[in-house]
Specification:
The chain has 73 residues and is mainly α. It has one domain. The protein is 77% helix and 0% strand. It has three helices and no strands. Helix 1 runs antiparallel to helix 3. The longest helix is centred in the C-terminal third of the chain and has 30 residues. The chain is elongated and about 55 Å long. It starts with a helix and ends with a helix. 4% of the residues are buried. Keywords: Membrane, Transmembrane, Transmembrane helix. InterPro entries: DUF6199 (IPR045679). This is DUF6199 domain-containing protein.
Length: 73
């Protein structure tokens, strides 16, 4: 169970980390084909993406810790 959770969390952590490091790339990931030019993203959207990624990393880590604790209890 713990191994499966760890394997499934790796890509999720990668995407959330990408949201903190380069939110513009995360927002445009999979949507570049829709635009001829690079769209102008607002600073507020970039800030919200960074903060939501950070909050999700914290929550996911807490869930992961709770899962490990409950598994070994």
């Amino acid at each position: 169970m713990v191994f499966i959770c760890a394997v499934l969390c790796i890509p999720i952590y990668f995407l959330l980390f990408l949201g903190i490091v380069d939110p513009r790339e995360l927002i445009m990931w999979g949507n570049r084909w829709k635009f001829k030019e690079e769209p102008e993203l607002s600073d507020e959207l970039l800030r919200i993406t960074k903060y939501s990624s950070l909050v999700c990393i914290i929550v996911l880590t807490l869930i992961w810790i709770a899962t490990i604790i409950s598994f070994f209890k």
